[in-house]
Target: Beta-glucosidase
Amino acid sequence: MKSMNRSVALLVSVLVWAQLAAQQLPYQNPALGAEERAKDLLKRMTLKEKISQTMNGSPAIERLGIPATDWWNEALHGVARAGKATVFPQTIGLAATFDTASVYTTYSMIADEARAKHHDFKRNNQYKRYQGLTFWTPNINIFRDPRWGRGMETYGEDPCLTASMGYAVVTGLQGNGLGKYDKTHACAKHYAVHSGPEWNRHSFDAKHISQRDLWETYLPAFKTLVTEAHVKEVMCAYNRFEGEPCCSNKQLLVKILRDTWGFEDVIVSDCGAIRDFYGKDKHETHSTVQAAAADAVLSGTDLACDGSYAALETAVKEGLIKEEEIDKSVLRLLRARIQLGMLDNDSLVALSQISYSVVEGKVHVQHALEMARKSMVLLSNKNKTLPLSANIRKLAVVGPNANDSVMQWANYNGIPSRTVTILEGIKARLPQGAVVYEKGCELVTDTVFSSYVTRCSFEGKPGFKAQFWNTRDFTGPMVAEDQVSRPFSYDAGGNTVFAPGVNLYDFSARFQTNYTAKEAEDILFKISADDGYRIKVDNAEVLAYWNIGKQPGKTWRLRAEKDHTYHIVIEYFQSNGSATLNFDMGVKKAVVPAEVAARVQDADAIVFVGGISAALEGEERSLEIPGFKKGDRTTIELPPAQEKLLRALKATGKPVIFVVCSGSALALPWENENLDAVLEAWYPGQQGGTAVADVLFGDYNPAGRLPVTFYAATSDLPDFEDYQMTKGRTYRYFTGKPVYPFGHGLSYTTFRYNKASLSKTTITVKDSVLATIPVANTGSRDGEEVVQVYIRNMQDKEGPLKSLRAFKRVFIKAGQSSSVQIPLGNSAFEFFDPQTQSVRVKPGKYEVLYGGSSDSKQLQKINLIIQ
Model:
């Protein structure tokens, strides 16, 4: 019966398509190929219509039946900025899994949610930003320096790991290519030599880059995604490369990307990158907007994520560019939309039938938990402090990240219905009353601010009701509503709108709530903004700056009366520049570390949950506090407030376990030496609290590995703005002693590597070789090991010390062994050749290094000759 139903459905579909083909113009005919349809549509468009499609907010062309779309959509670790979605661990945590198959599954799930959400929006005639199918992820820049705030969005410091993870992301998002339509389109960004600083990215010139660094470090992941994963979009970066903006860079875009790699799909600018060409105090490489727009298109940048391409019409009139050159870009853009089925009726697009129930559905939430578990990296475990006993009498949980759900979401995130904090995850493991909690300190200060935003409510919902208008004075239609149940931390510095449908500039917002005081006390209101704001309490204005410009933070004290309900309204407007609004209300108290320690010293063990958060590190932030600058870090040491508290906790004599939440490496020499265990949890997503508890109590045996080097001090690092890898960057060139090396991670069991073998020990430059590596689980627990293979080119004295070229995460039962087979294609032996100024396999002596870490002391080797 099922077979008959499928046959009938297929016959109906064929008849429908045949009928449509008879009635429609060629570009409307779904039976034709995307290229043919796009060419037919292109020739029916006016120049003005063509230009309108070269900007991310592409308007509808009703006479041709082309719906509006916004190319700007995000899915870094879940569908982002479009409301409800499953929030998986931040990508640096996904990299720590060293599990490409699971990462592929993750992004296939994300693509399912993306499709379900897009078609739901479409059914409601919504075509706004963050509602489309072209997703500007993955970020495959090399995390060359731990101070870079956006490094948490990457897959670490190694080109092989980044390329492997990127490949899994792209193929998961785009689908297997076997259907008529692509699932979604992914975007490899930011092409190509880009990794901070954030504070000067609109004017920075990455220069004096050696050909070795370019081809061995900065380009490999992009090459893999273009030539093997067939990514459908590439985003060019903000900065300049060797004097020329990346989005008009002839070497990067024309010579390498288009001509050498044969990329024929869409190149999109980073948001505002074309404006940087001519903007004051930015690159200033072009005198006019039309000159900038023309040069970018001629260089291959098809889509501008700003309004600069509106000047293309003037550029044509001035002879700066011909319409035929614009046609090349428009053709690629139209073809992409047809490949996604965006110009066809949903009845013809099978992907439109993905049920909305997949969005944060049970299977996806369970997978988010599994990925969080897999991402956990056990850095140290003295005297087998972990796992903790389930029969522990009393456990103290301390630290600024223990009960922070938003920290777990990181950045570029969706909004989950439920987040399990680390405190909640631990409490769920023990009887009621067995866990005591002390926040202890903030991330960077030794005071504690207890926010009362969660105690507020409006119309039966917790927090503040938010309303937005795309005018400065609350006129016109309301464009968005939201419910904000946490302290406000709005920052549009990374081109992040306050809510879907809200402008980046020229908008206003109103937030309102009610607060009923439980007792008589002084409540502190804290606010900072760019541009104007005003706060009203019971209709009386108590704090205001209703002008254009950035103002330093201000405070106001409410002397609250017990049982009185206060109506609070916050109004805000933004004119231009970078919109920011930060607000919180609550009680601030100074904390003495010794006193915190005294209150928990009767516990059997202490779990301190600290580190940093995406509120401090991230994309081009306006916030500047000690240790941080515009989202980057100026130091990599743990903030002093946390170390002081950790020292006091350790002085109790009780075991202290440090759960580190971060998107980048921290310098932890004292912690490694003195604490009983250290667990890196990254920003673990909505199920992070359960995952951390699973590891702490031994329900899950950790197997994550570090995708970055944990240095001992900021002084180990070269100048942040120096892009030369050979100055000691990453494990490939660093000659010092890290606290934890790249690839490091402990387990609750032990593994022994026996003598490996190669299928051949002498090969030609075109050959591949198979490595067979015997690994034994010598402990008492089942566990996973990440087998890592590094290659060293013995004749290359200026090249990397070693380079990861393959890895495999394997499960081995206690007391058993596995012969792990890892194929090494001839590309595994490619290195830069100074003589030919190219990357190639060169005859000579090589070492094949294998083990469970990049640490030379843990690696065994086999010699290989290439003839």
The longest strand covers residues 550-560.
